[in-house]
Amino acid sequence: VNVKKEHRSGYHFQPTKHWINDPNGPMYYNGVYHLFYQYNPKGAVWGNIVWAHSVSKDLINWKKVEHAIFPSKPFDKYGCWSGSATVLPGNKPVILYTGIVDDKNTQVQNYAVPANLSDPYLREWIKPDNNPLIVADKAINGTYFRDPTTAWLGKDGHWRISIGGKKNNRGISYLYKSRDFMHWVKAKHPLHATAGTGNWECPDFFPVSATNGLDTSVVGPNVKHVMKVSLDATRFEYYTLGSYDVGKDRYIPDPDMIDGWNGLRYDYGNFYASKSFFDPSKNRRILWGWANESDSTDNDIKKGWAGVQLIPRTIVLDPNGKQLLQWPVEELETLRGNKVELSNKILNKGENVEIKGITAAQADVDVTFSFESLDKAEPFDPSWDRYDAQKICSQKGSTVEGGLGPFGLLTLASQNLEEYTPVFFRVFKDQDKHLVLMCSDASRSSIKDDKTKMKDGKDAYRPSFAGFVNVDLTEKKLSLRSLIDNSVVESFGAGGKTCITSRVYPALALFGNAHLYAFNNGTEAVKIDSLNAWTMNRPREMNH
Ligand code: DQQ
């Protein structure tokens, strides 16, 4: 394959070529982080799925090792799909994954263990003969039965896992229990289920606190649980916060949570099939998500690769108890190179300021804006759908003059602004409260009039991704961090309350021709309180 360098990431994880999707089985073991991921060893489209494997000491610099799991047995002959790792007592890692057993996509759950625990990289994995561990019973549709979670241990000494699926249009997170990890019994009730949500892929279930990460088995009166599912029909990931009733073995979302399409999302952009794990070395929980291409399949094939893993994010409970906060792992900062700073810079209506002196195509930008008053916030049109932020952003783009906002960054911009991907805020007034909209708008990201069709007949996808930010504006400040990486713009609003990832394919704003600006198109002046931007270096050892 002749791999096109254009649009490849500089510091986001990706292999040298071919297709990748879901991160699988992330874990920390004896000083090493392991990342497995869905990979097609034969091409830049989904298929022939194996678990590729990379290892790292710092989550940033990765070394590729042998594929860990690949089709070879009757219980996974047609594919080795997503799954999770659990480190069992005695420091013994085990992987649970979904095997495809026939050409009808029938799914079973298998396990694999390291061949040699003294190999620091755990290069070789064995799939014992007592696989599969779990097959669908008659009540389960075996073609919607996949993606086992990390196991958690109950006070009764039984392990639990959840497996995603659906019955009719009801999304289900099945619950299985085992005393010895080998014999699994389906619980009478699922862990959780929600009508009308369609198939649940890659469920994730774990405890959170506002201060640090928690091992997956932690329960207690002061602990909230997160239930995340990947909704296949929208390709977004939704989560609720709630409690885990250990007596009934059920998850109960908090009463004010929206459980379904209108719920909270990990990311309001291109972020899917994520998985979290507990990192005992730093007492944190890390979330890992995959970003697919937003280009046509034809272009994916032409460029010889598709998909990146996003920067791992530390997740904690927002002190308000109503949502999560996500932030790039601190290790990312080791890649920061040349730095520029700006402070106390007023942006009047229509003003742009270029952030010069860094490599704008590959940068980390952290900016705090402030404003004197909220008075000019535009009224929120009552006919708008509060849960369709993307539609509002597509109508109220970065060039549409507002009151307080739009203001933010123009990333991956060409010199004369023929191309740019704006990441910005716009503040609305809705009766007595304010609504903060955050957008990452790909609609002007490329001048290429791309007539190559997506597989499903659609044009290359350039959505105006957006979400609301549940932030207190008393201090009249809004912060934004964007990780810009050639074709990736991964942004964190208000300290990680709202995250949006875009994939874009500029034709002009490439490498040294990319620029970065801060802008304001609202009538209220905004001030750049402080802005720090860094050129991002490449990791030492990428996945080559
Ligand atoms: N991808 C895997 C499945 C999972 C889906 C197959 C989510 O196990 O449900 O590659 O992207």
From TrEMBL:
Keyword Phosphoprotein tagged: no
Keyword flag Transcription regulation: no
Cited InterPro entries: ConA-like_dom_sf, Fructan_Metab_Enzymes, Glyco_hydro_32, Glyco_hydro_32_AS, Glyco_hydro_32_C, Glyco_hydro_32_N, Glyco_hydro_beta-prop_sf
Residues annotated as domain Glycosyl hydrolase family 32 C-terminal: 331-534
BP GO annotations: carbohydrate metabolic process
Domain of life: Eukaryota
Keywords for this protein: Glycosidase, Hydrolase, Membrane, Transmembrane, Transmembrane helix
Gene3D superfamilies assigned: Exo-inulinase, domain 1 (2.60.120.560), Glycosyl hydrolase domain, family 43 (2.115.10.20)
GO terms of molecular function: hydrolase activity, hydrolyzing O-glycosyl compounds
Domain annotation Glycosyl hydrolase family 32 N-terminal: ranges: 12-328
Subunit structure: May be present in two forms, a 70 kDa monomer and a heterodimer of the 30 kDa and 38 kDa subunits. The ratio of the levels of the two forms within cells appears to be regulated developmentally.
UniProt record similarity statement: Belongs to the glycosyl hydrolase 32 family.
This protein's name: Cell-wall invertase
Species name: Erythranthe guttata (Yellow monkey flower)
